[in-house]
Design brief:
The structure holds 2 protein chains of 2 kinds.
Chain A: H1 2-19, H2 24-27, H3 38-46, E1 54-58, H4 70-79, E2 83-90, E3 96-98, H5 119-123, H6 143-150, E4 155-159, H7 166-176, E5 182-186, H8 190-197, H9 200-203, E6 205-211, H10 217-227, E7 232-236, H11 243-254, E8 257-261, H12 273-279, H13 285-290, E9 295-298, H14 301-310
Parallel strand pairs in A: 1-2, 1-9, 2-4, 4-5, 5-6, 6-7, 7-8, 8-9
Antiparallel strand pairs in A: 2-3
Chain B: H1 2-18, H2 35-43, E1 51-55, H3 67-76, E2 80-87, E3 93-95, H4 116-119, H5 139-146, E4 151-155, H6 161-171, E5 177-181, H7 185-192, E6 200-206, H8 212-222, E7 227-231, H9 243-249, E8 252-256, H10 268-273, H11 279-283, E9 288-291, H12 294-303
Parallel strand pairs in B: 1-2, 1-9, 2-4, 4-5, 5-6, 6-7, 7-8, 8-9
Antiparallel strand pairs in B: 2-3
Helix pairs in contact in B: 3-5, 5-6
The chains are: A alpha/beta, B alpha/beta.
C-alpha cells in the first residue's frame, strides 16, 4: 500500500515537472541549479550507456550569444549540456584565445590575422552577434578564462589545437586545474601525434576523429585502440554506406563513446539539426541515437537536450 | 528495502525536477492572435498589452530576413516582424538588409548588380556563415507567409514604396503593413501622402531633438499616427515625459531594445543577463518594443500579464 502511495507520488512529481511552464524566474541565471558536473560527465564519456546521450554544443550556444564567447559557454552550462566545443588559436604573443577563423574579420569588429595581433590588441576588439552587424560588449576570451568558467561544470572540447598548440593548451589546463575537463581531438594518426607530443598524449584526454575519407581506417583505429585507449571517437560518415558508419557497432561493443556531428549533411549522412527541424527530431537525432551515437554535436543545443530529456536519454 | 528503493527513486525524481535548467524561452503553449486582434492592439494606444516586434525575423534560429525567420516569429506569437526590402538589378523586391549580399548570402557584391534569377542561385548563410537551404525571399513571398498572421514593418521601403504598395495590394496584406520615416508631417504628407490612408505610418523621432516636442504636437494635432518611434539615448531626455500624453492622445510609443542608445542602456544584451531590464520600458509607458530577443521578451511580458 505504501509502495503504491510512493509510486503515485512519484508519478505526480514527474508529471508536475513536465507540465511546469517556463517562467522568467527560470531564466534568471542566478537561480539556475547546475544539473551537471564535469566529473559526472567524464565518467559518462568513459562509460557510455544506452540510456544517456551527451549533448555537445558547437562553438557554445552561438544563437544565444556570440560564438566562442564566455556568454555562449555560460549558456551551455545553464542548459545542463555535457560538452561545449570551442576553437582555440594563438595570438602573436603566444596566448591562446577562442577564435574559429584565422582572421578576426567575421566574428569581431576588427580586421586581420589573429596570429599577427597581440593579446592586448585582440582584447580591444568586441565580438559580433550571429546577426553580424552590431558588436556586443564581449571580448575574445582566453582559453584560461573559458576553463575557469567551465571548471567543475562542463567539459570543453578543444578544436584547432591538434596541429600546433596542444602543449600551450595543456599548460593552461594545468594552471587552471582542468586537465580532466578538456577533450583534445585531431585527424592525425597516433604515430604523428606521438612524434609531435610524445608522452604528453598520455596525460590528456584525446578523441581521434575518423572521417569517411581517412586513409587506412583499420590501422588508424587499431593503433589508437591498442596504444592510447581513447574514451571517444568523433565519427564522420557521409553516407550510411561509409565504413565509418559500419564501425560504430564495434565502438559500441567496446564501450567507446561515439560522437556524431549533426551539423552538416556530409558529417552524419544527412541526419542534421536542420532535418530535425524539418522532419522532426526522431528523423535526425533519434536516428543517430538508434544507430549507436552516445554523444551528438549540435548547433541547436536547447532543442536537442529537450528532445533527449523527453526520451529519457538525458 | 523496497521502500528504500522508492525513497531513492522519489528523491532522485525530485532532484531531477528541481534541477531542470532554464527552459527555452517562449515555448509556453499559447493561442495565436487573429489579425483582427493584432490590428486592434496596434490601433488601441491605451491597451495595457505591449506589442513585440522582432528585428529581421527570428534571426537567431533562422537566417535573418528569411521566410523561416518570419514563420518562427508567427509560431512564437510575435506581433510584428520587421523586414528589410531592397530591389534587385531587374527591379524585383527582395528581403535584404545590407546594400551588399556579402554578409548574409553565399554571393558577393551589391544587390543592385544582381538579377533576381541569379540571386536565386545563392543560399542564405546561418550565424556561423555556413550556407543553409534557405534562399533570398521576394517581398511577395514574405507577405504571403505573413498574410493574416503577423503585422509587418517594412524597413528601407519608404523610397520604393510605389512598388511595395503594388505587391501589398496584390497579396491582400495592405492592412498589416507599418512604414516608418524620420520626417516631419509636412514632408511626409508631400512625399507619402497618397499612402497615408492605406498603410500604417509611424514617424521616427531621434532624441534628443530640439524640435521633437513641436513635431510630435504637429502630428498629434493634424494627423494622429498609429505610433511614434523614439530613440532614447539617455534617461534624462524630457520628451520621455510626453509618452503618457501621446498614448492618451491615441498614438502608441515604440522604443527599440536593440542597442544601448535606443533605450538608455536597457537593451537586449542587458536583458539576457537580467530580464527585469525590460521593466524600464513598462515604467516609461512604452507599448511597442522592437527586440533581438523575441522569445525572452515574450516570456517576460507574459509573466507580467502584458502579453497573450
Amino acid at each position: 500500500m505504501k509502495n503504491i502511495f510512493l509510486l503515485v507520488l512519484s508519478i505526480l512529481i514527474i508529471t508536475s515537472c513536465k507540465q511546469s511552464t517556463p517562467t522568467v524566474q527560470e531564466l534568471d541565471t542566478s537561480s539556475v541549479v547546475v544539473a551537471n558536473s564535469s566529473a559526472k560527465i567524464l565518467e559518462r564519456l568513459k562509460n557510455p550507456s544506452d540510456d544517456y546521450v551527451m549533448v555537445v554544443s558547437h562553438r557554445g550556444d552561438w544563437r544565444y550569444a556570440p560564438e566562442n564567447s564566455l556568454m555562449a559557454v555560460q549558456r551551455c552550462i545553464e542548459l545542463g549540456l555535457d560538452i561545449v566545443e570551442i576553437d582555440v588559436r594563438l595570438t602573436k604573443d603566444g596566448q591562446l584565445v577562442a577564435m574559429h577563423d584565422k582572421t578576426v574579420d567575421r566574428t569581431t569588429n576588427g580586421k586581420g590575422l589573429l596570429s599577427e595581433m597581440t593579446l592586448e590588441e585582440v582584447r580591444k576588439l568586441r565580438l559580433k552577434n550571429a546577426c553580424g552587424v552590431r558588436h556586443s560588449r564581449q571580448q575574445v576570451p582566453t582559453l584560461e578564462e573559458i576553463m575557469n568558467l567551465a571548471k567543475g561544470k562542463i567539459m570543453v572540447n578543444l578544436d584547432k589545437t591538434e596541429g600546433e598548440t596542444v602543449r600551450e593548451a595543456y599548460e593552461i589546463l594545468q594552471k587552471t586545474g582542468t586537465v580532466d575537463q578538456a577533450i583534445f581531438k585531431g585527424n592525425d594518426s597516433l604515430s604523428v601525434m606521438r612524434e609531435k607530443y610524445g608522452t604528453l598524449m598520455d596525460s590528456i584526454i584525446y578523441m581521434p576523429k575518423i572521417w569517411y575519407d581517412t586513409p587506412n581506417k583499420k590501422e588508424y583505429l587499431r593503433k589508437f585502440n591498442e596504444e592510447l585507449h581513447p574514451p571517444a571517437y568523433e565519427m564522420l560518415f557521409d553516407t550510411d554506406q561509409s565504413p565509418v558508419f559500419a564501425e560504430i557497432k564495434n565502438m559500441n561493443a567496446q564501450g567507446i563513446t561515439v560522437l556524431a556531428i549533426a551539423l552538416w549533411d556530409e558529417l552524419c549522412a544527412g541526419h542534421t539539426d536542420e532535418l530535425a527541424l524539418v522532419e522532426g527530431p526522431d528523423a535526425a537525432w533519434g536516428w543517430l541515437v538508434d544507430h549507436g551515437a552516445n554523444a551528438i554535436m549540435t548547433d541547436r543545443p536547447a532543442e536537442l537536450i529537450a528532445y533527449l530529456r523527453k526520451k529519457g536519454l538525458h | 528495502m523496497k521502500n528504500l528503493f522508492f525513497f531513492i527513486l522519489l528523491t532522485s525524481l525530485f532532484l531531477a525536477c528541481t534541477t531542470c535548467p532554464p527552459q527555452d524561452e517562449g515555448k509556453s503553449p499559447r493561442v495565436a492572435a487573429s489579425m483582427e486582434q493584432l490590428v486592434n492592439d496596434l490601433e488601441d494606444s491605451q491597451n495595457p498589452e505591449i506589442m513585440v516586434v522582432s528585428h529581421r525575423g527570428d534571426w537567431r534560429n533562422a537566417p535573418e530576413n528569411s521566410l523561416q525567420a518570419i514563420k518562427n516569429c508567427i509560431n512564437m506569437g510575435v506581433d510584428m516582424v520587421e523586414i528589410d526590402v531592397r530591389e534587385s538589378k531587374d527591379g524585383v523586391l527582395v528581403l535584404m538588409h545590407d546594400q551588399t549580399i556579402d554578409r548574409t548570402t553565399t554571393g558577393k557584391g551589391n544587390i543592385s548588380d544582381w538579377t533576381y534569377d541569379s540571386l536565386q542561385n545563392l543560399r542564405l548563410v546561418d550565424g556561423l556563415g555556413v550556407p543553409t537551404d534557405h534562399r533570398i525571399p521576394t517581398l511577395e513571398e514574405a507577405l504571403k507567409v505573413s498574410k493574416d498572421k503577423i503585422l509587418i514593418n517594412l524597413d528601407k521601403s519608404y523610397d520604393i514604396f510605389d512598388k511595395c504598395f503594388a505587391i501589398a495590394e496584390q497579396t491582400g496584406t495592405l492592412g498589416q503593413i507599418v512604414i516608418k520615416g524620420a520626417k516631419p508631417r509636412s514632408v511626409v504628407e508631400k512625399e507619402f501622402g497618397q499612402y497615408l490612408d492605406k498603410v500604417y505610418f509611424m514617424p521616427i523621432i531621434r532624441l534628443p531633438d530640439p524640435k521633437a516636442d513641436s513635431i510630435i504636437k504637429d502630428y498629434l494635432d493634424h494627423r494622429l499616427p498609429i505610433a511614434f518611434e523614439f530613440t532614447v539615448p539617455s534617461d534624462t531626455i524630457g520628451t520621455i515625459g510626453m509618452f503618457d500624453d501621446i498614448r492618451e492622445a491615441g498614438a502608441g510609443v515604440w522604443v527599440n531594445s536593440l542597442w544601448s542608445h535606443h533605450c538608455a542602456g536597457n537593451d537586449d544584451r542587458k536583458a539576457a543577463l537580467d530580464p527585469n531590464t525590460y521593466d524600464w520600458f513598462i515604467e516609461r509607458n512604452i507599448d511597442m518594443i522592437q527586440t533581438d530577443r523575441p522569445a525572452l521578451l515574450l516570456s517576460f511580458l507574459q509573466s507580467k500579464n502584458l502579453h497573450r
